Amino acid sequence: MPDQEHMKKALQAYIDGFNAGDAAAIVALFAEDAVIEDPVGNPPISGHAALTEFYTNAINGGAKLVLDGPIRGSHGNGAAMAFTIEVAAMNLTIRAIDAMTFNDDGKIIEMRAYWGPDDMG
Amino acid sequence: MPDQEHMKKALQAYIDGFNAGDAAAIVALFAEDAVIEDPVGNPPISGHAALTEFYTNAINGGAKLVLDGPIRGSHGNGAAMAFTIEVAAMNLTIRAIDAMTFNDDGKIIEMRAYWGPDDMG
After folding, report:
1. Residue in chain B lying closest to A75 (CA)
2. Do B80 and A74 touch (CB under 8 A)?
3. What is the DSSP letter of B43?
4. ipTM of this complex prediction, to 2 decimal places
5. Would I find Cell membrane among this entry's keywords (chains A, B) (predicted)?
6. SS3 assignment, position B88
7. Test mutation, A66, A74, A100, chain B, max B CBs within 10 A
8. Are the beta carbons of B65 and B85 closer than 8 angstroms?
9. SS3 A85
10. Which tens digits make up the pLDDT trace of A82-100?
């Protein structure tokens, strides 16, 4: 099981990779068979190819991620963070929470993103 | 599927019920067969009797919950919130994120709490 420090660094690297426009750096945090549901309620997507497309599109949309507070760990293989997605060109913000589960290799195996229609402002 | 407003009110009622010392009000938000893992990595507990014991103990420990920001919904049956657990008597704070899944009756069917040893301060 990955330790707390490893998981928190991975979530910070997710934020940093996104803001650097580096989809490959984000996707490298995930296992090849990872499943993401972003947001919860949308059809899950899986696999590095699909994730690369997803994050490339999100980055190209001009979004930046700003942590709302410290990343949380757990007593197990999960970690979570609250953040705000800022899309300056659209004068749009989205408040989100991502919860991630790691595999024994320290890769993210599942990500669930909590944000809905009324979390936008 | 419960609507976003219902889920967010339930999470707010969880906070308010906790701070009012009303374990029954919290437990009433959950389905009888709900499973909670608090924190992730601890053995899950299930059923209203076990949840009542869990929340009664937490309340009796003197903890109060303070939301860190707006509760998040989703495009489906999930909602999440970041908050700080304050235990004044122990001069202790714990930073947590709870992610909840609802059933079609609008009751919480699963709760996963993200906080670990190094989220305490």
Report:
1. B41
2. no
3. P
4. 0.94
5. no
6. helix
7. A74
8. yes
9. strand
10. 999 999 888 999 999 999 9
